[in-house]
Amino acid sequence: MRVISLPCPHCQHRVRAAKSRTMSTLMKEITYMCQNPECGHTFVASLEVLRTLSMSAIPNPEVRIHLSQHVRNACANQLALFKND
């Protein structure tokens, strides 16, 4: 599996995830360290669930995630089919 990463915002070199902290079901903070010894920048970034692209087959009723426009349209189309029956 590929690790989610981004370049150092200062020198554009590779960074390494040093640690992470779960903030909520939908958000995690990740501490990154620049691998360029001349830079040495350490920073925190966030990883957040933003929207649903495909509905879960086993949804957690306590989790509320925005639906993408595509999913909203698909749901509206399915509801329209049921109304027409």
Task: Summarize the structure in words.
With 85 residues, this protein is an alpha+beta fold. The chain has two domains: 1-49, Single Sheet (N-terminal domain of TfIIb), CATH 2.20.25; 51-85, no CATH class. Helix content is 19%, strand content 34%. It has one helix spanning 69-84; strands spanning 15-24, 27-34, 42-48, 51-52, 66-67. It has a three-stranded antiparallel beta sheet, with no helix packed on it. A two-stranded parallel ribbon has the order 4-5. Strand 1 (15-24) and strand 2 form a beta hairpin. The longest helix has 16 residues, at 69-84. The termini are far apart. The model has no long low-confidence stretch (mean pLDDT 91). InterPro entries: Znf_Ogr/Delta. Residues 8-53 form the Zinc finger Ogr/Delta-type domain. This is Putative RNA-binding Zn-ribbon protein involved in translation (DUF1610 family). It comes from Glaciimonas immobilis. It holds the Pfam family Ogr_Delta.
What's this entry about, in short?
This is Putative RNA-binding Zn-ribbon protein involved in translation (DUF1610 family). This protein is an alpha+beta fold.
